[in-house]
Amino acid sequence: MLFNSIDFIIFYVVVTTLFFSAPHKIRWAILLAASCYFYMAFVPVYILILGFTIIIDYFSGIYIEKEHSARRRKMLLMASLTANIGILVVFKYFNFLNLNLDVFLHKFNYHNPIPYLRILLPIGLSFHTFQAMSYTIEVYRGNQKAERHFGIYSLYVMFYPQLVAGPIERPQNILHQFHEKHNFNFNLMQSGLKLMLWGFFKKLVIADRLSIFVSSVFGNPDIHNGTTIVIASFFFAIQIYCDFSGYTDIAIGAARTMGFDLMTNFKRPYFATNIQDFWRRWHISLSTWFRDYVYLPLGGSKVGNARRYLNLFIVFLVSGIWHGANYTYVIWGALHGLYCVGYVVLKPYLPSPQNKFAARLVRISGTALTIGLVTFAWIFFRAASVHDAFTLVRNLRSFGEVPFIGDGLNNFAQCILAILLLFLLEYKIEYYPDKFNFFSSRNIVVRWGSLAFTILWIVVFGVFNGGQFIYFQF
Amino acid sequence: MKNSSVTKFLVRLAAFGVILIVADYLVGLGLKKIYFSQRVGQYSQTTYALDSAKQDILIFGSSRAVRHYSPSIISKVSGLSCYNSGRDGLMIPYAAAVQEVSLKRHVPKMIILDISPRELGIDKSKYERLSILLPYCSRHQELLKYIKEVGPFEPDKLVSKTYPFNSSVFVLACNSLLAKSADKDDNGYVPLENAMTRHETDDYAKRMAARARKVRKKTEIPEDKAIGYFKQFLDDAAKYNIKTLVVISPTILHNPFYLDNQLLERNLIEKITGRYKNATFLDYSNDPRFNYHPEKFADYFHLNVRGSKEFSEIIAQDVKAGI
Q1: Residues of B with CB below 8 A from A225's CB?
Q2: In chain A, whose CA is at the least distance from the CA of B147?
Q3: How near does any CA of chain A get to the CA of B11, in Å?
Q4: Longest CA span, chain B
Q5: pTM metric for this prediction
Q6: Taking the CA atoms of chain A, what radius of gyration do you get in angstroms?
Q7: Is A387 a catalytic residue?
Q8: What pLDDT digit, counting tens, does each position of A31-76 carry?
Q9: Vertex A58, ends A54 and A63: CA angle to 5°?
Q10: Which of B1, B203, B211 sits opposite A183 (nearest CB)?
C-alpha cells in the first residue's frame, strides 16, 4: 500500500480511529494487525520472511540476555546476524552474485550450473532487516533489555509507518513506546497531520513532478546532451530528497498522531557545507546505523590515519551495496567514500575564514561544491546500469548545447517553481526556524488559510499518477 | 481517550473541511471560467476539437500531428475545410477519445491519423496524460471511460472542482497573460520555427546507432490495449464510412523504427490498416526528401515550418487523390 494512494488515506483513518477507540491492552494487537495488512497489500507471501526474522531475533534476544558466557552470547548474536544477513543475501543479492559468477566462469569457458531465483525483492527488506539487527546487537551490548512480549517485539519490526522505508529505529527509542499508554493528544494530532501534509506536498508536488523530466532523460541516456543531463541530474537530486524525506514526514506524522515519536531522518541535506555535513543530514537513521554497527566496531577514528580512511571508505561502500544489487550503487557508495576520505584528508589544510564576508563565501561555495559532488554521484544511483551511467557521464561533454525541456514548457516550468518553493521553505527552516511559521500561527485565519492553501496547491500542482516511493525498492 | 480533546479535534476538523470544500469550489469555478475562455493555446484547441469542429477533414494525432499538418495548405489544394485536432504529448487513446466525441456531433468526409509506432508500444504515459480530458468530463460523459485509464479512482476525484484543472494553471496563466501577443494557430496547426544543424543531426544519428545496438537486443512487445484503441479508432471511422489516411510522417533519420526497435509496431499499423477498406496507410518515415535534412526539422522528432509546409503539400495531394 502506497502512502500516496486513496487506499492509504482510508487505511490510516480506520487504523487511527480503532487505535484510540480500543483499550490500551489490545492496542498493540490492532497496530500489529494493521501493519500485517499494510505489508501484505504488496506481496502477501513475503510476510513469512518477516515472520522468520521476527522469530529468530525474538528468541535470540532472550537467549543472549539469559546467557552468561561471553563466547555463547557472541555465538548467539552471530547466529542471529547470519540469519538476517542470509535473508538479505538470498532475496536481494543472490542473483547479482550468481551473475558475477556467471561472468567469471564464462571467462574460463565454464558453465555456471547455479540457476537464477525467480523472485521479487520483498519490499523494504533492507530496512526491517537492519532494524531487527539493531535490536539483537543492542541486547548483546547490554543497552536494551530483551523484549518478552512477542506481539510488542513483532510490532517493533513491523510498525507500519516505518516498516518499508524507515526511519530505521533503535530499540531504545521505540520499543518502550509500544508499552506506554498513548491518550489522544490534540497537539500531537495536529502537528502529526501537518507533518503528513508537508510530506504529501514534497512527494506529490515536487518529487513526482520532477520525476517526469528525470525519467525521460535517464530512460534514454544515449540521446540527451550534456546540458540536459546536468539539469536532469540536479532535478533527480531534488526528487530523491523530496521523495524520501516526504515519505519520512508522512511516516513520522502518522506515528505522531498516535503518540509515537520516531527519529529524525533528514535535516535539509542540501544546505550542508561539506560532504561530512551532508551525511549528518541525509538518511540519518541509516548513517548512524552504519556508524554504530560498522564504523565504530572497525575501530572508527581511534586507529591510525590510513586505517581510519579505509574504515570510512568501507562504510560507504557497504552503504552503496545496502541500496541494491547493482554496480551502480557500488560506484555511488565508492564515490561518497572517496569524497569523505578526501574531505577528512584535506580538512586540516582548509583555511578558516577571517571575517563574516569570507565565512559566508566559504559557506556558499562549500554548499555549491557539496551539491555538485552529490549530484554527480546521483547519476550512478539513478542510471539503470553502469553502461547507462557512463553514457550519461560521457555525454556531459556536450554541456552548453540547447537542453531538451520535455513536452512543452509547462512541466519544466512547474519543476522550476517546485524547486524554488522548496528552496524558500527549507531556507526559512534552516536560518529562520522561529519566523513565518504559518501552519502554527496563533492567528486562526493565517493558520487555516495556509493549510487550505497548501492542500489546494497540492490539488492544482500535484502529480497524482506518480509511482511508488524510490526507497521502497531497497 | 479524553473526550473533550477528541470533540475539539473533530469539530475543528469538520469546520476546516467546510472551509476547504468552499475554497475548492471557488478556486475550481474560477479556473473553469479561465479555462473555457482561452482563445489561444492547446486548451482552446482541445475545447474546439471536442465541442465545435465541423470541418470536412479532421486530423488526429500527437505533437507530430500538431506540428506537421497545415490545414490551410490542405484546404487550398483539396478544396475542403480542415482542422488539426492533434495535441502535444498525447497518443492513440486520446485520438480515439476525441474522435468518439467528435463523431457524435459531426461526420467529416475524411480523417487523417498521424501515428508513430511507439504509440503501440508499452508506455503508461499515454494513459496518464489522458487526464487533460478531465475538464470535459462534465460535458461529455463518454470521456469517463478514458479517464479510468489514468487511474481507477480518477472519476471519483472529480468530486473536487479544482482537480480537473490539475497541472494546467501555469499554461492558463501564460495563455491569459500572453493572449494578445501570442500568434493564433492555423486551425490547430502550430509550426515550429527553428532549424536543426548538420552537427546536431550527425550527433543524434551517432547516439541512435549506439542505442540501436542495445535496444535491438530487447524483445519487441506491442501493447494490446493500445492496439485496441487503434482498432477502435479505425472501427469508428469505418462505421461512418469515412475515408481515413493513417500516416507516419517524416523522420530525420532513415530507418528510424529499425534503430529504435519498433519495426513490429510499424508493421502492425500497416497490417491493421490494411483490413479496413476505407483506410489507407502512408509511411513517409524513409522519404529521402526529409531524411537527413536538418534544415526541415526543428528537433529530433518534429518538422519545422519549412518541412511541415512541404509535407502538407504532399499530404494535400494524397487527400485529393483519396477524395
Answers
A1: 203
A2: A465
A3: 12
A4: 81
A5: 0.84
A6: 23
A7: no
A8: 999 999 999 988 888 899 889 999 999 999 999 999 889 899 999 9
A9: 150
A10: B1
